[in-house]
C-alpha cells in the first residue's frame, strides 16, 4: 500500500523536464548492440563506461536524449524475445528510465521535492559525465533523474575523451568506430 501525503503535490516550482536522459536496458551482446544501434539505426554511440562487473553504453536519440545498455560480466542471463504490446510473464520490468534535467540545481530541487512527498531518494551520484538521483515509482519501476555535466550529445564523438569513453576493454565495434568511423558489419534481425 502506498502511503498518501497530506498535500496533493509538494510546494515549490515544478520540475523543468528536458526529455529522457537515458532509457537503460540490458544486453547480453554489447558488440551486436553497438553494431545495430549505431550501424543500423544511426543512433550515435556518444559515451561508454566499463567496470570489472559491467559495461554501460549510451546512444544518442536526440539532443541530450539517449538509450543506454548494460552488459553484465560473469552473470548468465537468459534473453528472450516477445512482440511489442503482448504481455509476457518473463517481461515484468526493464532496468530503469532516466529523466533529463537542465542542471545540478534542478536535480537538487527534484530530490527535495521527492523527499517532501515522502519518497525515498538517493544522494546525488556522480557518474563523471552525468549526475543522478535514483528513486522508484508506486509500481516499483526504478527511476533516475540526471543532468549532463559534460553533454555527450549534439557534437562529434571523441573516442579519446576518457571522461566519456572510459571502458578499458571496449567491444570490437567500438574499436572499428575509433579506427574508421563506422562499423564493418551489422546484425540481421527478425520479427518475433
What does it look like?
With 192 residues, the protein is an alpha+beta fold. Helices cover 17% and strands 27% of the residues. It has helices at residues 30-40, 104-116, 172-180, and strands at 20-26, 45-50, 54-62, 65-72, 96-100, 125-126, 130-136, 142-148. Strands 2-3-4-1-5-8-7-6 form an eight-stranded mixed beta sheet, covered by helices on one side. The chain starts with 19 loop residues before the first strand and ends in a 12-residue tail after the last helix. Mean pLDDT is 86; it is low at 1-9.
Strand and helix layout:
Elements: E1 20-26, H1 30-40, E2 45-50, E3 54-62, E4 65-72, E5 96-100, H2 104-116, E6 125-126, E7 130-136, E8 142-148, H3 172-180
Parallel strand pairs: 1-4, 5-8
Antiparallel strand pairs: 1-5, 2-3, 3-4, 6-7, 7-8
Overview features:
disordered N terminus, 192 residues, 3 helices, 2,3-Dihydroxybiphenyl 1,2-Dioxygenase, domain 1, single chain, alpha+beta, eight-stranded mixed beta sheet
What coarse outline follows from CA principal-axis ratios? globular
- Overall average pLDDT: 86
Order of helices and strands: EHEEEEHEEEH
Q: Quickly give the CATH architecture.
A: Roll
Q: If strands are numbered along the chain, what order do they take across the biggest sheet?
A: 2-3-4-1-5-8-7-6
The amount of helix comes to 10-25%
Sheet with the most strands, sense and barrel status: 8 strands, mixed
Count the E strands.
8
Instruction: Pick out the low-confidence regions.
Output: 1-9
CATH superfamily: 2,3-Dihydroxybiphenyl 1,2-Dioxygenase, domain 1
Q: What is CATH's topology name? A: 2,3-Dihydroxybiphenyl 1,2-Dioxygenase, domain 1
| Rg calc | 18 Å
